[in-house]
Amino acid sequence: MSARKPGGSAQTGGPVLEDDVLRLRPLTLDEVVSWQAGEDDEIRRWFQLSRPSSRQDVTRAIQAWKRSWTEGGPVRHFGIWTIDGDALVGGVEVRDRGEGSAYLTYLVFADHRRRGHASRAVRLAADYARRALPVERLVIITDAGNEAARGVAEAAGFGLDGPADPSEYVELGEMLRYVRT
Fold first, then answer.
1. Rounded CA gap, 11 and 53, in Å?
2. Inside any domain, residue 146
3. Are β-strands 22-25 and 75-82 bridged in parallel, bridged antiparallel, or unpaired?
4. Does the residue 70 lie in any domain?
5. Which residues does 40 contact at the CB level (< 8 Å), separation at least 6?
6. pLDDT tens digits for range 138-167
7. CA geometry: angle 90, 60, 153, nearest 5 deg
8. CB 102 within 8 A of CB 129
9. For site-directed labelling of 5, which of 22, 64, 77, 84 has its Cα 20 to 30 A away?
10. What global pTM score does this model have?
11. How far apart are CA 73 and CA 67, in angstroms?
12. Which residue positions in the chain have pLDDT lower than 50?
């Protein structure tokens, strides 16, 4: 299922990953408006964003993600697209935390939720992290009340490890750690 398309491009600065349903690749500045359009109240709630992201916010984020790709930084962020369409459906990020571990975060825009896209994207990103970084331990930190995010972690092969340590997150609330080794 997690076939990888080798290489990447000068435009995206990183690899393209795909399976039979999704394509993951780094975002470009051409996708700023699409990212903004996808952000909704649910995303802002779980990521604890106080306001909608501005064009400048998203532009800066994409530039930082691209810099991390090109400079070999710790963050590998992918936009998520369906194979049969050209609509941006969300994002998934791998953050190398050193010492053989990487943390994954993900989001799917409202029009594309409940189709299995998040768990597929997490599996693709996790497989990439194992090969490219490499890491032995993959971690997802999620709010205990976010049943959808917990379901994604489990569907992607992560097991509940227990309460997250406060050093692992910046969000408020009860957070849980899911691990895949």
1. 23
2. no
3. antiparallel
4. yes
5. 109, 110
6. 999 999 999 999 999 999 999 999 999 888
7. 30
8. yes
9. 64
10. 0.87
11. 8
12. 1-10
